[in-house]
Amino acid sequence: MAYKTVNPFNNEEVKSFTSLTEQEVAAKIDQADAAYKKWRQTDFATRRAVMKKAASILRAKKAEFARLVTLEMGKLIAEAEGEVDLTADIFDYYADNAETFLAPEILKPKDGGTAFVEHDSVGIILCVEPWNFPYYQLVRVAATNLMAGNVVVVKHASIVPQCAEAFEKLLLEAGAPEGAYINLFVDSKHVGKIIEDRRIRGVAVTGSEKAGASVAGKAGECLKKSTMELGGSDAFIVLEDADLDKACQWGLWGRMNNTGQCCVAAKRFIVVESVADEFLKRLTACFSKLSMGDPMDRATTLGPLSSEAAAQEIAELTATAIKHGAKAVIGGKRPERPGAFMEATILTNITKDNPVFYREFFGPVAMFFRVPDEKAAIELANDSEFGLGGSVFSKDIERAKRVASQIDTGMVFINRPTWTAPDLPFGGVKHSGYGRELAKEGIMEFVNRKLVYIEK
Ligand code: NAP
């Protein structure tokens, strides 16, 4: 797709960008390779200084960075500011911890020799990233790899080109050498060719299953390590002993944060029968209070989706659900107003033969299921192709922990929806992908765990 800024609040095109030619991409990889040869030799203090500076620039220019996010993909302005803060925190986190994470591990071989595993850089990492958190997705791969001595070339989503450029500029301004972080405006169909370049040593994707399967296939063919952070359809389990006030507040946030466009959004509400009516009534009341409008306006609580195409897609998926027997207890269609909007919607009566049953609703549409008991809740939660996050609501923490252990996902949160922090490993299983970003795990993905052995 061509790189363009289109404001989803009114669907007006703001700016378009030219994609790189094949020769220009090759020159960028040459530049990354030259930068890598120097960057890999730098010490942690040098790398740390760049990360710290990037964090401080982000905080100083928060309004400017946030405005671009809201302009390009419609995130509510306060949420965009929150994303800028989180991005700065992740820079700081790796600045402060990378050296400890990457310290050599001393081994004690039985033969009496000495040995250690050191964590060396590997080279250029290609990153393919989505629009839903235009900076946070980038820092997850940039801070880790740059601190590990790698360099990155990044294909960002075509609808957030100004954010892509702003992030590249940020790192240059923070003191990263030219070529250590390169933004590539390339069409997704050219990604395979980049992976083939022998200097690309790893590939990180965050995006849909379709993009993940395509890129992972190519990386496999070229024998390159990849990490895949893909879609999700997180269960939000409410047991009969849950604090319903808390569960409703978190349910609203879990489904509506980022206008429902989070990989770890609460997409399937699974509620035990004895509290199902009450929970549904309260959640519906919460959804009905949302105020649709301009995401730049702080009074707005339901902004547009990221693009007209995204709004059409979720409206069509909702219509399919209804055609096959689902009931919209609130919402169900697009409002009559310009822009990429969709009503806040709750769908009930979704049977297993409904074609949407296994689909990911990437927008403000909740699927609501009632189940007889805890066992049925676990079974339904696990009846998904995805395995990203999920949550369990119960006042009995030991019980919630037992339930969490039986959920087949990479992350389960108790008494709040799955969320992210610099020091919590993020990632999934099944079709949600493999590998982890953030925390110590994230920085370990693209390093050479090299064994060094010394004869006694
Ligand atoms: P997407 O269409 O897969 O796009 C993501 C990125 O992949 C974009 O840069 C896109 O480029 C590129 N792309 C698409 N098809 C490709 C292909 N065949 N080869 C190479 N690159 C390709 O996903 P999206 O709709 O933007 O994002 C939403 C999805 O991401 C959801 O499923 C969501 O759950 C998932 N997600 C997962 C995580 C996680 O950490 N697990 C986090 C956020 C989002 P273009 O923009 O040029 O098409």
UniProtKB/TrEMBL annotation:
Keyword Manganese on entry: no
Keyword Oxidoreductase: yes
InterPro entries assigned: Ald_DH/histidinol_DH, Ald_DH_C, Ald_DH_N, Aldehyde_DH_dom, ALDH_GabD1-like, GABD/Sad-like
Pfam families: Aldedh
Keywords: NADP, Oxidoreductase
Gene3D superfamilies linked to this entry: Aldehyde Dehydrogenase, Chain A, domain 1, Aldehyde Dehydrogenase, Chain A, domain 2
Domain annotation Aldehyde dehydrogenase: ranges: 3-452
SUPFAM superfamilies (alphabetical): ALDH-like
Family to which this protein belongs: Belongs to the aldehyde dehydrogenase family.
Name of the protein in its database record: NAD-dependent succinate-semialdehyde dehydrogenase
